[in-house]
């Protein structure tokens, strides 16, 4: 089964929640519509622009809440980056050993 067929069986967008200290409430968010399938790719690393806040936020606080969420996600994303870099390093090393 293709990933797109598997994802289409779910209600989109996939929603996530986090506790905002800025607003002192639970905020719902998701990835943008264009990234709904990408979020399941093993090698995809989201950008800040891929985040969409779904909760009602006062006008002046949206960017502040988005920054707070990004900081919250950054630790997990760094683990993903490190894992992908290690995988690439090992692949390059294996290719180098094949050539020798």
State the major sheet: 3 strands, antiparallel
Shape: elongated
Number of DSSP helical runs:
2
Record field, number of beta strands: 3
Give start-end ranges of low-pLDDT stretches. Answer: none
- The fraction of residues assigned to DSSP E strands is 15-25%
Strand order of the largest sheet: 1-2-3
Secondary-structure content class: alpha+beta
What number of domains?
1
Q: Could you estimate the helical fraction of the residues in percent?
A: 40-55%
First-residue to last-residue Cα separation = 39 Å
Query: Averaging pLDDT over every residue, what do you get?
Result: 88
Radius of gyration using CA atoms only: 18 Å
Q: Give the ordered list of helices and strands.
A: HEEEH
Provide an overview of this structure.
With 100 residues, the protein is of the alpha+beta class. The chain has one domain (3-99). The mean pLDDT is 88. Helices cover 43% and strands 15% of the residues. The longest helix is centred in the C-terminal third of the chain and has 38 residues, at 62-99. Strands 1-2-3 form a three-stranded antiparallel sheet, with helices on one face. The protein has helices spanning 3-7, 62-99; strands at 16-20, 25-31, 51-53.
């Amino acid at each position: 089964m293709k990933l797109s067929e598997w994802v289409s069986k779910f209600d989109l967008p996939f929603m996530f929640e986090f506790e905002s200290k800025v607003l002192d409430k639970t905020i719902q968010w998701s990835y943008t519509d264009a990234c709904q399938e990408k979020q399941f790719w093993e090698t995809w690393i989201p950008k800040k622009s891929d985040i969409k806040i779904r909760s009602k936020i006062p006008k002046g606080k949206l960017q502040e809440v988005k920054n707070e969420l990004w900081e919250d996600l950054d630790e997990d994303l760094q683990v993903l980056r490190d894992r992908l870099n290690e995988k690439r390093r090992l692949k390059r090393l294996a290719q180098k050993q094949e050539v020798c």
